[in-house]
Design goal:
Elements lengths: L8 H21 L5 H13 L9 H13 L12 H22 L2 H19 L17 H14 L2
Length: 157
């Protein structure tokens, strides 16, 4: 089983950031001033849910503990247009997937990717968008569905 010592500091930071990269990609897919706080809260809460990691439970438990120890300034800080930021998020997520595939056994890699995908889905489902005073709208927009598909492809799921 892959653990902290199996990764460089840079790789470890990328693994910690993985669920947030996916979550931010969802938030940017269909930004909504009322939904962003709900989606952001759901993303952070879901990232701390190690139960969705399956066979990567032990690895994800250590990653979650490290989330509290990390300086927020080390987190992804995008610059550029929305499309440029989305492209960079996808690229960074692909790097994370490659690191997990290279350093972890297939079950653990799959569990890590399952956890990241679960964070993305929880983020997408956190806010009903296109509604007025809670009436109507969709739980997951077409743009968020498209972003979820991109995340699954990038993660190789």
């Amino acid at each position: 089983m892959a653990m902290r010592d199996d990764f460089t500091d840079e790789e470890w930071t990328e693994l910690v950031e993985g669920p947030f990269l996916a979550g931010v990609l969802i938030v940017l897919a269909s930004p909504n001033i009322m939904g962003i706080p709900k989606e952001s809260f759901a993303m952070v809460k879901a990232a701390r849910n190690v139960e969705t990691a399956g066979p990567a439970h032990d690895l994800v438990t250590i990653l979650v503990a490290d989330m509290d120890d990390k300086d927020d300034s080390s987190r992804f800080n995008p610059e550029g247009s929305a499309d440029e930021v989305k492209d960079e998020l996808v690229s960074k997520l692909a790097t994370v997937a490659a690191v997990v595939d290279a350093k972890c056994d297939p079950d653990v890699a799959s569990g890590y990717k399952q956890w990241v995908a679960a964070v993305a889905l929880t983020t997408a489902e956190a806010s009903k968008e296109g509604s007025f005073l809670g009436i109507g709208g969709k739980r997951v927009t077409e743009q968020e569905h498209a972003a979820l598909e991109v995340i699954d492809v990038v993660l190789g799921r």
